[in-house]
Protein: UDP-3-O-(3-hydroxymyristoyl)glucosamine N-acyltransferase
Amino acid sequence: MTPREFAELLKGKLLGEAELELTRPAPFFAAGSRDVTFYQGEDAGELVKSGAGCVICGIEPDRFNARSLIVVSDVGKAWAKALETFPLPQEEDKPNLTFVSDSATVDASSRLLPFTYVGPDVDIGADCVIGPNVTVHARTVIGNNVRVGAGSVIGSEGFGYVGDNGKYLHLPHLGSVVIEENVDIGAGVCIDRGTMAETRICKGTKIDNLVHIAHNVLIGRNCIITGQCGIAGSSILEEGVMIAGQSGVSDHVHIGAGAKIYAKSAVFKDVEPDEIVSGIPARPHRKTLRAQARLFKDESSKDS
Structure:
């Protein structure tokens, strides 16, 4: 595509060359004269450093070295749309290398990549991509347009035991997992089925690699859960919750809509809607900052 075509697609203002053929996307500082890249900063001086074929940005500088600029109101959305014009690497299907139970239903438009296991009474909707080495256990329901990354396990038995005179009795899990439409699940994710009812991931939620979601958890619409997080049993995340990397949520915790959990936090109690928490234990982020400031002040006074 040319800068002119990108500008039309992104509804942006074009500066510089219009008919240059752009061949690939590239990082800002590595982009060459036929590459398209993006810049989300506000420092116009940075644009002088780029010799890219085209830079998608949110500012209109007096001068720039790129062969063209496209000025847009939302750089992140524009860049995502620009990337959609380039072909994705395609995985290879091998239907004879998958196992699908006779009682399972998989829509014909969905793809199962090699070494996928689909258990009894599973229902997989339309336009899904189930990655290699994924296990989908019995009675799991997956909605339309769901992507599951390599090596993930959906519907495994939850971690449930009952104490018995110093030993542990295994608690059977008879429930299921429901993944609603437009959910993305990364690689190496484990989602346990419910004890008696279901574990549910609601539509539009995005889950990063290496996340564990325990039995009976309810994750609302359009949540973001990043890598290496763990959510313990029967917790509820309302719509639009964001959890940053390596955070943990204790069992039976209720996190309100729009709340944000900063990285490496441990959430032991309920979080109010739109609240931002951090730390171990997690508390309102400003309180965590004040506590850290006092701690570091005490340490510096001891050193002196």
User: Anything to note?
Assistant: The longest strand covers residues 35-39.
